[in-house]
Amino acid sequence: MSVPAVRGEGEAQNAPRSRKGEQTRARLLDAAKEIFEENGFLDARITDIAERAGLSHAFYHYFDSKEQVFREIAEMLDEYLSEVMETVIFAPGASVDPRERMETALRSHLERYRDEARIMRVIEQVARYDEHVAAVRSARNKLHREQIEASIRGMQRRGIADTTIDPKIAAAALGSMVERFAEMSLAQGQLDCDPDDGAATLARLFVNALQMKPAKDTRFRS
């Protein structure tokens, strides 16, 4: 996956002002992603990134540091992996049964994570000590927990989910299950698992935990 020319820290002085500048910045981001995948964050060098991009003197025109370019890549990947959850599960007005949408979204999420497992392994490691990366991921996870909680409450109101379950606790537990499963199986390689099988099992765990009932033309959100 190519990294788009997103902008983060240092935008005022580093933002490209032309189409060529955008393309150059994108080349540096793509090269940086490859170097981080191959060498990890600590051993990656700016000179290696610039050399891989074929831009030996351009790096500091677009980025202030190795940390900045890594953080942009981490934010982009986080958004990319989350997009299917938001557009499939939480899409307003979607009428497909919530269980079907859940499995579809989980499958797409795991497939994307698998395709980006090498860089996600590095991001997961860096998030443990880089406050910026950790804060961005924490904020996105919090948003997802709130979305899942709202969805559970909506299903409870319509009588298709167990009303005795605390939606906030259930959202945190189920969301954490998905996040940790993807990291353990795909980034760390602790479990040999096909995304189809993983998605089907995770979706079944959601259904069983919430005691979800089939519903016709049901909106996952209230």
Give an overview of the whole structure:
The protein is mainly alpha-helical and 222 residues long. The chain contains 10 helices and no strands. It starts with 10 loop residues before the first helix and ends in a 12-residue tail after the last helix.
Tally of helical runs:
10
Report the portion of residues in β strands: under 5%
Largest sheet: none
Structural class: mainly alpha
Roughly how much helix do the residues carry, as a percent range?
A: 55-70%
pLDDT averaged residue by residue: 85
**Termini separation:** 34 Å
Give me the strand/helix succession: HHHHHHHHHH
Rg from alpha-carbon coordinates = 20 Å
Quick take:
With 222 residues, the chain is mostly helical. It contains ten helices and no strands.
For this entry, give a set of tags.
222 residues; 69% helix; elongated; disordered C terminus; mainly alpha; 10 helices
